[in-house]
Amino acid sequence: MKGQKSLELAARNGATFFGTGAGVLAMMQRAGVVPNVSMDLSTLKSILVTGSPLPDATWDWVYESVSQTVRLGSDSGGTDVTSAFIGTNPYQPVYKGELMGPYLGVDAQSWDPEGRRVYDQVGELVITRPMPSMPVFFWDDPDGSRYRAAYFDMFPGVWRQGDWVTQLSEGPFVVHGRSDATINRGGIRMGSADLTHVVDQVDGVAASMVIGAELADGDYYMPLFVVPQPGTRLTPELEDRIVRAIREKISPRYVPDEIIEAPAVPRTRTGKLLEIPVKKLFQGADPSSVNRATAEDADVLDWYAEAARKYTSGA
User: pTM for the whole thing?
Assistant: First the structure.
C-alpha cells in the first residue's frame, strides 16, 4: 500500500515531518493498518495533510495508530495559486476536523450567496484581497472571459475558490468539500465529502464518490458510486448497510437515487476527487471537454464517461 510504504520510509530515515494526502491516510485507516506496531515513528513531530477534507475517523486513527504525540494539521489551497489559503500553524492547539485559520497575507472568509460574511454556517470560501501568487490571466483567453468565469463569476472582484467552508466564530475553519460538487436536496446544501465520509466507514466499502447533477429538464440526479473492498461485490446487503448509515448519521433526505458499483473513484494526480468533471458528464457534457491529463488514472475517468453516456442515452 502506497501510504504504508511512505510511512516505512519516514520511519527508516527518522523523519520529523510527513506530508501526504488525506485520501492516503483514509485508505490506510479503512484497511486496518496500524503503523506504530511495526514501525518506529518516535521522531515524527508533524503530519500535514491536504488534497481533500480529512475524515474525523482518520484524525482519530492517526493518534491511535500512528503517534499519540504527533501534531496533525490539515491545509486547504489550490494548484492555481501554488499555495494554501487556510491551514495549520505551530502556535495554536489542534482540534479534530478544524483548520486553524488563514495563512499570512490571506484574507480568507466565508460568504453566503448574497456576499455577506458568515460564521458558524456553511458558506463559500472567498479571498477578498489579492495574493501575490494568484494568476492574472489564462493562456489563449485574450478577453479574460474564462479567467473571470473561473474565479469571479459569483462575487465580482472577489476570488471564489469553489469550496464549502464553515468559519467558526472563534476563527478556525471546517472544509466540507467542493462547492461546485455540493449536494443540494430540496434546497438544503451539504458538502459531498460529508456524505462520503459516512459511506467510507461502512464495512465492505473501500471508497465512494457522490454527485448531484442538475438536469436540463429541471430534475436532479444523485448517484452514489461505491468501490467495494477487494474481492467483494456490491451486494444488496452492502447497499442496505450504506443506506442505513446515511439515514442514521446524516438524513433520509440524502439517500442516493442509485448506488452504482465502480472499479475505482477518479482522482487527480494530487489525490483530489474528480467530482466536478463527472458531474458535468452526467449533465451531458462532451467527454472530449474533460481534461484527462489531470487524472491519476485516465482509464477510470473513461469508465465514468461511459457510465454517463449510458445514463444520458437511456441505455
Answer: 0.72
